[in-house]
Records
---
Amino acid sequence: MAMKQAATTAIRALSSSLISHSSPLVRQLHASAESKKIVGVFYKANEYAAMNPNFVGCVEGALGIREWLESQGHEYIVTDDKEGLDSELEKHIPDLHVLITTPFHPAYVTAERIKKAKNLQLLLTAGIGSDHVDLNAAAAAGLTVAEVTGSNVVSVAEDELMRILILVRNFLPGYHQVVNGEWNVAGIAHRAYDLEGKTIGTVGAGRIGKLLLQRLKPFNCNLLYHDRLKIDPELEKQIGAQFEEDLDAMLPKCDVLVINTPLTDKTRGLFNKERIAKCKKGVLIVNNARGAIMDTQAVVDACNSGHIGGYSGDVWNPQPAPKDHPWRYMPNQAMTPHISGTTIDAQLRYAAGIKDMLERYFKGEEFPAQNYIVKEGQLAPQYR
Ligand SMILES: NC(=O)c1ccc[n+]([C@@H]2O[C@H](COP(=O)([O-])OP(=O)(O)OC[C@H]3O[C@@H](n4cnc5c(N)ncnc54)[C@H](O)[C@@H]3O)[C@@H](O)[C@H]2O)c1
C-alpha cells in the first residue's frame, strides 16, 4: 500500500515537473481527470454479435465498457477498419489518448503511427502478445504499453493440446472424408499414432508453456522444455519435464514441438530452413505463439517435402491472413484463424482486465506489475 502511494506520488510529481515535450518520459504519465479519446480496434462480429450476450471481444461488444466510459465523459470509438491511410483508425491517430487492440485483429502500431499520435499515452492489448506495436518506438516515445497478462493462458494451452492430438491422430483427413461422402480407413490409419510415449518439447515455458506441460502430464509422454529461464524446481519435478538449455540439441529429440515464446527481435524467424532441418523428420509442429517466429516459406517447403509431418496453429503473418497465404495451401496443415485466446471465457477475463487498467489510468494509479510491456522507456524482460 505504502509502495503504491509512493509510486502514485512520484508519478504526480513527475507530471508537474516534466513539461518539456522533448523528454521521452512525458507521454507515459498517467491521466488527469479530463475527458479522454479512447479508440478500440477489434474484429467485427456482424450476424454473430447478438448470439451471445457475453460476446464482448468484437466491435459490437466493444469489451462491454462503452456505457461506463461514456458515463464518465470519455469518447469511445470502436472499429475494425485498421489498415492504410484511409482507415477509420488512421483518422483518429492524431488525437487519440488511448488505443486498445487485440492480437486477434491487431491494429499495427508502427513508428510512423506513433510519431503522428501526438496525444497518445497508453496502448492496451486485450489479450496477450503486444508485438503488433513497435515496442522500441513506443519506448522511445515514452508510451506505456500493457496487456492483460494471464488472461487467456488456459484457453491457449487447451487449444494447443487439442492441436497436438489432431495432428498425432491424423484427425483432419478423416473429417474431410466424412464431409465428402468417403470412407477410407487406411487413408487415415497409415499415419495415426498414440500420444503416449512420444517426446514433446515446448520452446518457451512461461505461463502457457508450463500449463501445457501440466496438461500433458497424464498422457505419459516424455516432456522437454527450452526457455531462457528454468522452471521452479518443485514444479519441474511435479510435471516431470526436462530442461534443455540448447534449443538445437532439443530439436532432433522431439516428435512434437510446440512454440510458446513471444515474438521478439530474437525469436522473429527463429524457425528458418536451417533450424527446421535440425528437427526430426516428420516432426509435428504446433504454433499458437506468433506466425513470424516461423520463416513462412521454410515451413511450406518442409511440409511439401514431408520433413514437417504436420503443422497446426492459429497465428499468421500478417493477420487477417490474405487469401493467397501459402500456409492455406500446404499439405498436412491444420490451421485456423487466430482464435485460441478469444474464447468467451477469455474475452470476459481480458475485458475485465482492460477495464481495471483504464480505471487505474484515470485515477493515476499503477497497473499490476506483470501487465507492463513497456514502462518508462523499458521493455518487459520477456521482450528483451
Ligand atoms: N494464439 C493466441 O490466442 C495467443 C494467446 C495468448 C498468447 N499468445 C502468444 O503466446 C506467447 C506466450 O504467452 P505466455 O503467457 O506464456 O507468456 P510468458 O511471458 O508467460 O512466457 C513467455 C516465455 O518465453 C520465454 N522466452 C522469451 N524469449 C525467449 C527466447 N528467445 N528463447 C527462449 N525462451 C524465450 C520467456 O523466458 C518466458 O518464459 C505470447 O507472447 C503471445 O505471443 C497467443
---
Amino acid sequence: MKSSPLDKIEIIRESFLVEGKAMASISFRISLFLLLMYSIYMVTLIPKISASPSTPTPAINIVIDPGHGGIDSGATYAEVEEKQVNLAVAEKLAVALEEQGYHVILTRERDEALSDSSPRTEIRSRHQRDLIQRGAIVNHFTPQIILSIHANSGSLTKRGGQVLYQAKGQGYLLAHILQQKLNHLANKNEVPLKNKSLYLLNRSKSIALIVEVGYISNPFERELLLNHAYQLELVNVMVEGINEFMFCFPWSITTR
Ligand SMILES: [Zn+2]
C-alpha cells in the first residue's frame, strides 16, 4: 500500500511521541536517581553540620579569668561585689565549656587575690602583681582563647554585655560573635570595643577578650546578674558564640 505524504508525517509524529515519552521517562529516572543521591548525601551531612558547633576540635585550651578577687572587689554597688558575680559566671562558663569538650583553666576558683600568690614580691603594687600572676597562669597553659569575665559599672540605666578585644585585633571575630549574642540577650545593639591598655589583653598572643557581662551599677541588671538562671543564660549564649566561632573560623586560632 502506498502511503500518502500525510501518513508519513503521522508516522514520523508518532515515532517522535514515542521517543519523546521514552526520553521523558529516562530524564525522569535520572532526576529521581539524582534526587535520591542528594537526599542520601544530605541525610549523612546534616548530622555533621548540626553536630559540629557542639563538637569542637580537641585540645582547644580556654583560660577563664574571673576578674578581681580577695581584697580587690572590683566595682561594688548595694553590697554586691563585682568579684562575686565574675566568679559565679566564670565557674558556670567553665563547666559548660568543659561539657562541650574544651580544656578549661580558671585563673582562680575561690575568692582570692592572685597578687598574694605572685612570686614577684619586689613589685609593690598589689594590682600589678595580680595582673602579672594572671598573665603567668595564662602563659603557662598556652591557651588559644582567654576570656576575662568582668561586670561593668558607672551607669544606673545602661545595661547589657560589652566585649573588649585586643589592640592588634586578633580577637575581633570572636568578640563580634559574643557581642551579638549578648546584644540579643539584652535586646541591645552594641559593638565590641578595641582596648589598647588592658594588661591581660595586650600581653597575650592568643585571642584574649574581656567580657563585661552587664552593669552591676544598674539595680535591675544587678539583680539579674545575681540570679542563677540568668547567669546560666549568659553562659549559654557565650558557649553558643564560642562554638559558632570555632565552627566558622577554626583557622583563626593558633593551635599548639
Ligand atoms: Zn572588673
